[in-house]
Amino acid sequence: MLQIENLSVDFRVDSGWISSVTDVSFTLGPRASLGIVGESGSGKSVTALSVLRLHAARNTRMRGRIMFDGQDLLTLPERRMREIRGRDIAMIFQDPMHSLNPVLTIGDQIGETLRIHQKLDAAAAQKAAIGLLDMVRIPDAARRVTDYPHQLSGGMRQRVMIAMAIACRPRLLIADEPTTALDVTVQAQILDLLRDLREEIGMSVILISHDLGLVAEFAERVLVMYAGELVEEAPSLTMFARPAHPYSEGLLKAIPSADEDVGRLYAIPGRIPDPGRRPPGCNFAPRCPLVQPACTAAPPPLATMEPGHLIRCPVRLAAMETTG
Amino acid sequence: MLKLIAFRIAQAIPVMLVVAVLTFLLMHLLPGDPATIIAGDQADQASIDQIRRDLGLDRPVPVQLWHWIVNLAQGDFGRSLMLNQAVADAVKERLPVTLSLAMLAFAITLPFGIAFGVIAAVWRDTWVDSAVMILALVGVSVPNFWIAILSVILFSVTLGWLPSAGYVPLHDSFSGWLASLIQPAVVLALFQIGYLARMTRSAMLDVLDQDYIRTARAKGVAVNTIIVKHAFRNTLMQVVTVAGYILSLLIGGSVVIEQIFALPGIGRLLVQAIMARDYPVVQGTMLLLGFAFVFINILIDLIYAYVDPRVRYD
Ligand SMILES: Nc1ncnc2c1ncn2[C@@H]1O[C@H](COP(=O)(O)OP(=O)(O)O)[C@@H](O)[C@H]1O
Ligand code: SF4
Ligand SMILES: [Mg+2]
Question: Which segments cross the bilayer (chain B) (predicted)?
């Protein structure tokens, strides 16, 4: 259904063009779930926004192909792209505080998707909005529908965002850090809701997060991104039980567990290099516990370790092969 | 909503009182003795003293202030010294001229200023944006009186299309009224259009970068709808603030423009009154201008509540 081939995204900044995302490829079938993890700045959002082509055209350059239902979204005319947005592919964002328009009622904002794509009139759209609010489990939907965003809590706003996204029963929902801004109990409720809706509507979901644990629990497959590149792809169980890339290992160790003291939380030392400041060879080399001299010589390729499990680390790959 | 209106008006009363006191004190701190001027060059000291007593100027300033305020509260603005007329009547006669001028200039400023600002923001960093912003810069940098003079030379003297001076009341002839005001109004508006365009552009750019604009695009909303429904409505708060400020500037600006185009408005009355040390008129007109500004600010607050649900529900 969705097939991304060698996607690269460059942005124009004051000093010229910088490469944000490099050579990303992955596929996603119908009714599938995929997770994308990586620290902040690893290129997850840029990849996700590319699928809907939401980058500002005047300072963005995209290469590669994003095939959706057999057509390349990157070459589609803007008018056709607009028909796909919100109807076939929908997206929800990290910050529910700022992602809703403060001067429009939530009913208006939810109904708008239906007015555009299904040509509903205002009254029908309002009625449908109430149904959708019910569906995302907002109590007292008929009264809430005329509320403005500032009258709702963060969790409620994210539910409104979800209602808006699923209004046209899209085939693909991209959720970019949907729970990062919310507190833990609300987080779990929102993820439960997304799981149920995926089942109910039969849509595919891409869940993006910096939390490997959260993503591995939700999705069937997980991609790990670092500095704009894919560094590992594996089924969730594999990723959780025995990640192969040193960066994925670090992410796994960084997951807070219930019995651990929050103050002693593990963090990978160092920080992610900015686009344009990336080291030669392996991007992770400056922070990698396994770094070898050869790592800084040439960029390592993404290679198949076993069917369905790809990693971008020749050192680990060689070690795995010798140990069998 | 009604509560809000009542509250804002109640709040305005002390402000207006302060405006009144300041106006009064300002007049009494200015050099020059009205009695001497009224009495004329030949007058002897005795008649000057007599005039001063008649006007009550011999009493202590606080007493004069008190009398003035008490009279004001009863709707009595005093009598003009130079016009042999009640101040209220003198103002009432001239008010339509100034209001016509300011409102016409305002009506020209709003659509052009907003449209230019929105256009520049939507086409940001293109030649359209640069062109609009350069025009706006010219508008705010060239002095009013200079444009006025150039305009008179071109449209009144050379082409003879418009009168260069004078005012035709609206109830005499609409076309005459418009012809007498269009030139001063446009001159007055030019600066404000540039100013409003720049403010609208920056407010619009700010809003266009917000997350909820991205949300709207992700839903498949068309560009025009995004600009009008999602973006512009969020700039209204700032546009209303600027528009209110501009209205105040327009009223102030008419003082200058009325001189150049010989329009018999409040501005001209004020300047004549200052020259003649006609302090009741100066006080009365200044007070009126002050009240106008206070009123405009109340109006802005009420419009805020109308355009922004976050204010409305507080
Ligand atoms: N519009 C943009 N202009 C320039 N740089 C950008 C832009 N958007 C993202 N970037 C850069 O691209 C990199 C990846 O960002 P992003 O995809 O947002 O990371 P994340 O994985 O946290 O979602 C970051 O270094 C970010 O600074
Ligand atoms: S290639 Fe080298 S530096 Fe990069 S992750 Fe593997 S071991 Fe570490
Ligand atoms: Mg992100």
Answer: 12-30, 101-123, 135-162, 174-197, 239-266, 286-307
